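hey m, so remember when u said the tokens were messed up on ur end? i reran from scratch. heres the input so u can diff it against urs
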Amino acid sequence: MTVKTIRLVSEQWQGGMNENYSFGARLLSHIVPPSYSDETETIFTPVSSEVKSDGQVDAGATLIEQMQATYDILVAKEPLNVLTLGGDCSVSQAPFDYLHGKYPAKLGLIWLDAHPDVATTKTSHHLHEMALSNLLGRGAQNFNQAIKNPFKKEDVLLAGLRHDQLRPMDAAVSELNLQYVTPEALATESTAVTNWIKQQGYTKVVIHADLDVLDPADFHSILPAEPGLDKRDFDAAIGTMKLDQVLRLLTDISQTADIVGLTMAEHMPWDALRLRHGLADLAIFK
């Protein structure tokens, strides 16, 4: 049987060193629309409870083993499309690497995120902050070497980026002159992204959708929507896009090019987590 689409449920959490990302991925797999096609297969990727460091990245040794295991699954299955449900932002590395090998020409990468994730080991020790750097071959050394089909900077578009909130770890945005579109430019239309696809001549795209691109006042299952959090104490940019805007953008992209890869990452369902943790001490649940 031909596998057209693989759904990867990646409970990987070590990239952000936050175990709640694991539960977020499992719950997200129940939220997204189901598929009843014989050509779609759902696979839970191997995720360890270990945090073996490689000396540069927190849990780096564990993470690279998980990335390689995921890549090997995709090579064995040979899907045409990959939907990845995460998990921290580094879950995009293996599927996008695989898809770029399968579609080496005319494949664009859209990084839909409030943050660019272009840090290096000189500026961060969390893999989810350097996921795009690794795909560009300029992140953590061990991961750069493991990525078999790196992307060129010209084939990357940062969408929803809070450019006014960039940090020193985000310097590669200007150093590489990465193309970007702000949330304001996407507030009422998607043409800044769809025109880029057309102008570059892409027939296929992969999209990394970090749910943190969303405004926590509009969508509450993301890290900066933590109950009681003073937003002034949050140490990174906070997304400003509305869910309707993101859904419209994804629809417009799908009408412009084939979406062969889509990642939804960093789902943090606070209400479900609070209920789950709050019930944990009751004997009836043991």
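this time it looks ok to me. The chain is about 30% helix and 15% strand. if urs says something different then somethings off w ur setup not the seq
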